[in-house]
């Protein structure tokens, strides 16, 4: 089995500059931008610039440099957006993968969500 990347997905189009985004941070390997439908006062998406479908695809096949950069950018976003867990009330980092995870966009992305109490991770009815 292997992951198949769809170059027509919306985040690929954002990376090609075909669709605008509200950029929060950018490096050679990583882009962070505001979610278009924020679920909380802070809702930033962090994506690798490489063609990775999901968290496990990225974790398995990205280079060490891409993986390190991705997480450093995520930490910087937490700090800069006022949700870092050492100095504030914290946040939730979520990534959805595949149909059971209800992943809508098939380009790996980490949601950084905070700025209000977020409740339990899964509602009991969903568990
Ligand atoms: P998923 O369900 O795949 O984990 O999350 C996809 C996320 O992408 C959703 O939170 C949705 O609001 C966001 N999203 C979808 N299309 C766009 C877009 O064109 N621009 C931005 N900034 N976010 C988007």
CATH homologous superfamily, by name? HIT-like
Ligands and ions found: guanosine-5'-monophosphate
CATH class term: Alpha Beta
- H and E string: HEEEHHEE
Query: Considering DSSP H and I runs of 4 or more, what fraction of the residues is helical?
Result: 10-25%
Mean pLDDT: 96
In summary, what is this structure?
By secondary structure, the protein is of the alpha+beta class.
Sum up the structure in keywords.
127 residues, alpha+beta, HIT family, subunit A, five-stranded antiparallel sheet, 3 helices, binds guanosine-5'-monophosphate
Secondary structure elements and pairings:
Blueprint lengths: L9 H6 L7 E4 L3 E5 L7 E7 L6 H7 L2 H17 L10 E4 L15 E5 L13
Antiparallel strand pairs: 1-2, 2-3, 3-5, 4-5
Bound molecules: guanosine-5'-monophosphate.
Describe this structure in words.
The chain is an alpha+beta fold and 127 residues long. It has one domain: HIT-like (HIT family, subunit A, 2-Layer Sandwich), CATH 3.30.428.10. It is 24% helix and 20% strand. It is built from 3 helices and 5 strands; from the N terminus they run αβββααββ. A 5-stranded antiparallel beta sheet has the order 1-2-3-5-4, covered by helices on one side.
């Amino acid at each position: 089995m292997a992951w198949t990347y769809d170059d027509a997905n919306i985040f690929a189009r954002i990376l090609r500059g075909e669709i605008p985004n509200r950029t929060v941070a950018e490096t050679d390997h990583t882009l962070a931008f505001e979610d278009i439908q924020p679920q909380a006062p802070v809702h930033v998406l962090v994506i690798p610039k490489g063609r990775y479908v999901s968290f496990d695809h990225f974790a398995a096949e990205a280079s060490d440099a891409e993986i390190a950069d991705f997480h450093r950018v995520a930490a910087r976003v937490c700090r800069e957006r006022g949700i870092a867990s050492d100095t504030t009330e914290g946040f939730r980092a979520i990534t959805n993968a595949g149909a059971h995870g209800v992943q809508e966009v098939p380009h790996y992305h980490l949601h950084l969500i905070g700025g209000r109490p977020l409740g339990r991770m899964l509602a009991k009815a969903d568990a």
